[in-house]
Design a protein that fits this description.
334 residues, alpha+beta, 48% helix
Length: 334
Amino acid sequence: MRVPRACAAIGRAVADFASTLMKLYDDLDPQVQQYAGDVLMPLLHVSQVKGNKLIDRAMSLIDHPAVLEALSEGRIDEGKALMIIDQVSVLDAANQAIAEPVLIAHAASHNYTASQRYARRYVLKLDAEAALRRYEEKRKQRLVARALPKDDRTLDQKRSDVAADLLMGKETPAPQGEVCVNLTMPITNILGLTTDPVMLAGYGPLPAQVVADVAANGIWKRILTDPVTGMAEHITTYRPTPAQRELINARYPTCTMVGCNQPAHRCDLDHCCPFDGTNTTVANLRPKCRHHHRMKTHSRWSCENRPDGTHVWTTPSGKVIETELEPIADPAPF
């Protein structure tokens, strides 16, 4: 019949798509692989969240060849394939190898719900502790953030944002929420001549990227030292003013990465040109979610602000992508 054949063709296409995505992922520079979902954003016109989901699903399928084969042959569909992978994830490799062909055979002749019930029973029979491990994993993901407004963030991302907001004192009048970070680094770091560890006051040496993640929305005090004597030479403090943040958030209501919908009020204000003591300005600041702020700082993605207010990204391969402006009012008709 045509319908089963057509359905099987969907499975083959999904399996082929997963293999193609993993080929793209494997060909990426290791530094860029953590941003593979972002690479898909302009290619497939999807959000960063969707891009990450596609990569994660492809990885799951490739890591389970028996399941991928059953999907490519049309014996099971994508939903059943991912369900089987999820159910066996609490098993060790030896038990996974036992369980997968059994669960595939059952799923090939039963609907999704029946297959899932069978899988749960079978996994528990193989490993009595499996159910407990699954429970503990789900408990770690308990409902900390379901009350937040619906947007394109996952629950894990919402939980992370809630924790960060409490630390940074966002949306709360509590004075103890404000973060002040003292960073001490050689002048040669600023000039790009060295990459020495940054000294975080009250803690000690840290890689620069760790410090940047902690302090992205705090008050920064940059203490430059003489590279010969190690003595402090200059202190610069910067933080965007409330008026600057309000205006920037009004002009750029979301993260300025193409396709990212993270609301600006949840983003870092990034100095597109590195902070030089004078350029904490509306012209130089743009909202970037923490993920894309890290991407710009720690990978070969780069960005710039154009005089007309547009924001331009350059991918690691050299492709230039322009972020469209989103006026909050209709332009005048003359």
